């Protein structure tokens, strides 16, 4: 990590961090994951970087709190009788465990809809517990098990209540996705026409933005929540009060929420993407593992939070398990380690 410097004009330059993650086997450096990151503070200044903070990439599920904002802003949760469970699941990349599935199902039932109305496809539960319980039940994964089913149910609620209807709610031209794009644009400070739009793994739109814009969005959202602004405050309150719903058993985002008492809000995205808010300090972070390797992103997130002084060097056991991971061979022997380079 380099020390912060000041330009001739007196403006503070961003601190450069080394966040690359390596796999060692004995004394051999076997693999290296390059990590890019941006850290933005409460004044909207870029204060920390790793790699290329202007890297444009797909935000994926890291954007879910922003994607939930339009339906909260429109008063949909109160109108349909939803509480923190439903709002939290709308922001979640959940593990498809029975508790998650039950809430997603209840959300649809309250709208007079059913699983087939979800545009996401089925996939296996994302936790070992979820997979085990599904296997023991003799059932197959459904769309409700999709980690994005809560987000989709919330989008359906917005579509139905605001009059455009559920058909095609996942498409970029539908009012739901237009509203989400406008929300992302506003919080990130990027004109909507400059936000790249593509199709996410679950079928709805995803957005291409520079990492520093994603970090800006999370910093602004965090500050607004701390000020008590209704929409960000309600979303973050739901995420904090329902950590299990955000991820699930032994899932990183849930562990971070639980271990910090909600002081740190982490939101996973696919392909090595992670967004983090530290509301009390007005910080927003965006982290991208260049090769998309999820095995490296948790390590990088924890290391960045450590160098920022948010996490201690001596981590609680549950966080430490994500910070350094043993490489184990087929004999059950530990033969190496996945760990930060620096």
Explain this structure:
The chain has 342 residues and is an alpha+beta fold. The chain has one domain (56-321). It is 39% helix and 19% strand. The protein contains 13 helices and 13 strands. The protein has helices at residues 64-73, 76-80, 84-90, 98-110, 128-137, 149-161, 175-188, 211-227, 230-241, 243-246, 252-260, 294-307, 317-323, and strands spanning 15-16, 21-25, 28-33, 35-40, 46-50, 56-58, 196-199, 205-210, 265-269, 273-278, 283-289, 325-328, 334-340. The strands form 3 sheets. Strands 1-5-4-11-10-9 form a 6-stranded mixed sheet. A hairpin with a 5-residue loop joins β12 and β13. The longest helix is centred in the middle third of the chain and has 17 residues, at 211-227. The protein is globular. 49% of the residues are buried. The model is unreliable at 2-11 (pLDDT under 50).
Mean pLDDT: 94
The order of strands across the largest sheet is 1-5-4-11-10-9
Helical residue percent band: 25-40%
Q: How big a fraction of the residues is strand?
A: 15-25%
What is the CA-based Rg, rounded? 20 Å
Tell me the series of helices and strands, N- to C-terminal.
EEEEEEHHHHHHHEEHHHHEEEHHEE
Strand count, sense and barrel status of the largest sheet are: 6 strands, mixed
Distance from first to last alpha carbon: 8 Å
As residue ranges, the low-confidence spans are 2-11
- The number of strands is 13
């Amino acid at each position: 990590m380099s020390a912060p410097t000041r330009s001739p004009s007196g403006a503070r330059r961003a601190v450069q961090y080394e966040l690359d993650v390596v796999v060692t086997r004995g004394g051999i450096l076997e693999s290296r994951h390059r990590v890019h990151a941006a850290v933005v503070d409460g004044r909207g200044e870029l204060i920390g970087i790793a790699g290329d903070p202007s890297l444009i990439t797909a935000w994926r599920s890291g954007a879910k709190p922003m994607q939930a904002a339009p339906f909260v802003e429109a008063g949909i949760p109160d109108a349909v009788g939803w509480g923190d469970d439903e709002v939290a699941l709308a922001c979640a990349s959940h593990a498809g465990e029975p508790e998650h599935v039950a809430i997603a199902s209840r959300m649809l039932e309250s709208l007079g809809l059913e699983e087939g109305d979800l545009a996401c496809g089925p996939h296996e539960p994302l936790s070992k517990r979820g997979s085990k319980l599904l296997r023991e039940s003799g059932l197959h994964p459904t769309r409700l098990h999709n980690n994005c089913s809560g987000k989709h149910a919330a989008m359906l609620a917005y579509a139905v209540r605001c009059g455009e209807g559920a058909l095609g709610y996942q498409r970029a031209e539908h009012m739901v996705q237009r509203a989400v794009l406008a929300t992302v644009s506003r919080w990130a400070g990027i004109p909507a026409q400059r936000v790249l739009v593509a199709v996410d793994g679950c079928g709805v739109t995803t957005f291409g933005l520079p990492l520093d814009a994603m970090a800006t969005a999370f910093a602004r959202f965090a500050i607004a929540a701390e000020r008590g602004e209704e929409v960000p405050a309600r979303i973050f309150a739901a995420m904090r009060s329902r950590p299990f719903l955000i991820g699930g058993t032994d899932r990183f985002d849930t562990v971070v929420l639980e271990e910090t008492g909600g002081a740190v809000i982490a939101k996973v995205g696919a392909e090595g993407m992670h967004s983090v808010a530290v509301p009390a300090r007005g910080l927003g972070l965006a982290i991208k593992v260049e090769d998309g390797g999820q095995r490296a992103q948790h390590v990088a997130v924890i290391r960045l939070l450590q160098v920022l002084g948010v996490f201690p060097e001596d981590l609680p056991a549950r966080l430490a398990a994500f910070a350094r991971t043993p490489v184990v061979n087929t004999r059950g022997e530990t033969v190496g380690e996945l760990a930060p380079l620096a």
